[in-house]
User: Which sequence fits this backbone?
């Protein structure tokens, strides 16, 4: 009976100490406008912003210029075919290449097609004809769609020329002449080959990580500036008290991000009709270790945040780096081994890859077991690190507090001595 009483007493003390820290962290965090912005407003606004930008999925009607030096029926047919393509829109017909280059320099067009003077003559005499395409490769989306449009038009014109020169008598012969080897292209998991379908799930998962890092970091900077970590001293004196502090702080932010995750990962894709092949139960189970790992990592990172402003400098710049090395925007096989090791330190790498496979490919939880187990291991490792760094934080804060009290006493004593004189 005494053992059960001790267990119950210990359990109640753990709950009460965790609740004390939770209430203290909640009061501090949600009275801070900066924390509210990053924990509430940013998760509400960023998904809508990114979704509106990428909602069209594919870049269409890219403005291009055609320099028609041939001025023949075949060259005009080529220009009309480019204009009819869903990817390009012929908006300029300059007289020479120099004028077209000036238009590209001024941002009026993003591609130039030059049809040389001997274009029609070479085709009609059975010789090789050339069309020169110049594209603004600084914007890869424009470059890709411009290249596809030119390739489609040239292949279609090649097929028509082959049929005309073959002298066939039946439609079947024409079809075989145009395409002796027929192929069918099937785009798995992303039928439109759109940007939003593969990029936005990764960005949305990154938003959850970055907003929690910023919220915890800013609040920790506030506590450190005002030396409020010493308020946890009564708890820290108990055996295992650091665990209650870490759990109390983590539980302050996790429920907020559960609501954020429901909105960011559930409602936003539904509003914009993105791919949603994942099962709700699998996603909920997958997000559990992800949010735990991010929360504990945020506490660890906040140990290095000395002021409110430093959290912005430490955390914000890392968003693009973590997205690039996650294996989504750049193939994982092409990422150098060093950066793969760095990527495995962050929950976003496992979270992005697992969530994208579940959302876009319909993978079940068992099929993303590598990422799922990786997140649980990260949650455990970051919990241990959070316990260690929290002890350091409390110890340093108490030293600073005692040092300030000593200085205050010395100053009071000196002032009192002067008054007596």
Assistant:
């Amino acid at each position: 009976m005494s053992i059960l009483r001790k267990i119950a007493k210990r359990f109640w003390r753990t709950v009460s100490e965790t609740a004390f820290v939770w209430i203290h962290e909640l009061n501090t965090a949600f009275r801070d406008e900066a924390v509210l912005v990053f924990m509430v407003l940013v998760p509400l606004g960023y998904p809508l912003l990114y979704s509106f930008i990428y909602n069209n999925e594919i870049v269409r009607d890219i403005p291009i210029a055609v320099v028609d030096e041939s001025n023949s029926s075949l060259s005009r047919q080529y220009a009309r075919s480019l204009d009819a393509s869903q990817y390009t829109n012929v908006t300029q017909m300059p007289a020479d290449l120099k004028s077209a280059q000036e238009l590209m320099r001024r941002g009026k067009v993003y591609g130039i097609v030059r049809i040389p003077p001997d274009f029609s003559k070479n085709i009609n005499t059975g010789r090789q004809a050339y069309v020169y395409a110049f594209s603004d490769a600084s914007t890869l989306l424009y470059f890709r769609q411009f290249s596809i449009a030119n390739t489609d038009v040239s292949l279609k014109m090649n097929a028509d020329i082959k049929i005309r020169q073959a002298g066939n008598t039946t439609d079947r012969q024409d079809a075989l002449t145009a395409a002796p080897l027929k192929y069918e292209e099937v785009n798995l998991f992303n039928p439109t080959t759109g940007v939003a379908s593969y990029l936005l799930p990764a960005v949305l998962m990154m938003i959850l990580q970055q907003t929690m890092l910023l919220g915890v970091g800013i609040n920790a900077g506030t506590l450190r500036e005002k030396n409020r970590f010493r308020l946890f001293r009564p708890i820290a004196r108990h055996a295992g008290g650091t665990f209650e502090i870490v759990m109390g702080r983590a539980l302050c932010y996790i429920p907020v991000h559960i609501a954020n995750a429901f909105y960011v990962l559930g409602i936003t894709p539904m509003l914009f009709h993105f791919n949603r092949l994942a099962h709700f139960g699998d996603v909920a189970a997958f997000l559990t270790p992800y949010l735990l790992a991010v929360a504990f990592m945020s506490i660890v990172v906040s140990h290095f945040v000395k002021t409110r402003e430093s959290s912005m400098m430490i955390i914000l710049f890392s968003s693009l780096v973590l997205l690039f090395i996650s294996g989504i925007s750049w193939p994982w096989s092409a990422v150098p081994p060093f950066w793969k090791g760095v990527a495995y330190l962050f929950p976003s790498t496992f979270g992005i890859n697992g969530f994208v496979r579940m959302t876009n490919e319909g993978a079940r939880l068992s099929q993303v077991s590598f990422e799922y187990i990786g997140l649980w291991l990260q949650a455990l490792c970051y919990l241990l690190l959070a316990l260690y760094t929290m002890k350091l934080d409390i110890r340093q804060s108490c030293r600073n507090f005692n040092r300030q009290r000593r200085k205050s006493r010395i100053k009071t004593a000196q002032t009192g001595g002067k008054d007596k004189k």
Summary: The CA atoms of residues 223 and 229 lie 6 Å apart. The beta strands are 62-68, 88-92, 111-115, 132-135. The chain has 16 helices and four strands.
